[in-house]
Amino acid sequence: MCDDHRMTSPQVPAAQVLSALLDRSIEQMAEAAQDVRRFDREAIRAAADVWDNNLYPLFLAVSTSRARERERRALAALRWMASFSARRRTWMSEQAAPAGYELDAVLPPTRPWVPGRDSLGHVMAPMGGITRRDLDPLLPDYDLAEASVRHIQVERVGTRLSAYLELVVPRVYAVERNTSPEPALLDMWLDDVTESVFDLSDTQGAALDPGPDGIELALGTAGRLRAAAGEFSLDDRSWHLSAAGRRADAVSPPRTEGSGRRSAPPVKGRLGTDGYAAAALMHRAMLELRSVRYATRADHVPVLDLCRAYSGAGRAVLAAGSRLGGRRREAAFRDLIRTWTDRGGPALVDAPRPTARTPRRLTGEPSQAVLVMASWTAAHTKYGTDRPAGARLQLALPPGTEEVPAAAWRLRTVECTGPEAFRLRTAAFRGPGPLVRSGQPAGTACLDLHEGAMHVVTRDGGSAPVR
What we know:
eight-stranded antiparallel barrel
């Protein structure tokens, strides 16, 4: 972060903080995509997601030459941004601290979590850290020994691993006859995963041990996940009938008109034509960047090109919005648009999103790959719709003989329906390893990496060739 973002007085300059957070977000996304062998899809998604609802408030906040009014608007925007969630607030504080900003001095104190209520007034199931304190009151209402894996995903996060797991957990409490047919789901996000072993032939039964040295999760008879920390969410529409739900219902305030809804952005006003065009252009880029959340989109989004085009945008927007007079401000925003389009090119910022996969055909096929993400989903019914079993892999592939420059690895996402075999071990994420393919692209096919550490067999080939 540049020195011009640092505090020079005890008063936190809110407008500079907002612009610094935008610049840091763009830097983070560029860092996460710099080397696809360590592609960090979640870091890109999370950073872009911040600006879905906060980009226009930023533009509105800084678009005035009156310093006091600008600070008032920016402070309101900062506080509204931080109110989204505890995780969002923590991210803001972590990103602002290296630049010398202490946000806790200007943000309201955090409120203790209380269970919310749905539209029927039922108390809703909680979310929290995977700790004994948070889980011990909840798990007696479910039979983990009879749980089954609906979805598992292990993914690179830079040099570390993360995992996402979705367990179908049978209820041990009585539900009403007309209750939702949807089962209860225990969703878990695991950070700093050190061990992962999974086989689709062994998905029944689970045991969870969140101890002081980390989290251990047994799956089936031989599967397991070990991680340093994690978070959970309990998706159960009948939770208000459970023992823990009844306890929460007794101490939770009733639902009131508008409760559970987030207020509208606090910054009011209208941007000029060119200011709005600049904000809309960047907002579209943020939506494009955020679309890496869908694995099948991740290898289509030009993350580095977009980050290069908008590098330093926070400082530039602040400078443009602070110009004296509406005409000068609009001219400054027009100059910004030209700068961004010159860097990225009209084809980059104006091109429609691709709707179909168009893999490049290179001479030969790679004999090695780096596993970036692997996931498996069981066949299930959700909201009355049958969904088939499937597997999805994200691979970093080495450059082909027609690739320029020769050192550029590329990201490829492949998926298949109804895999007959899906086995995954931590060693699959070691780095470049031997990639072995057999069978036919449109028939029974096998994909193997690191000598069986990742092994997938499918009858329908896959969505795209691995090349």
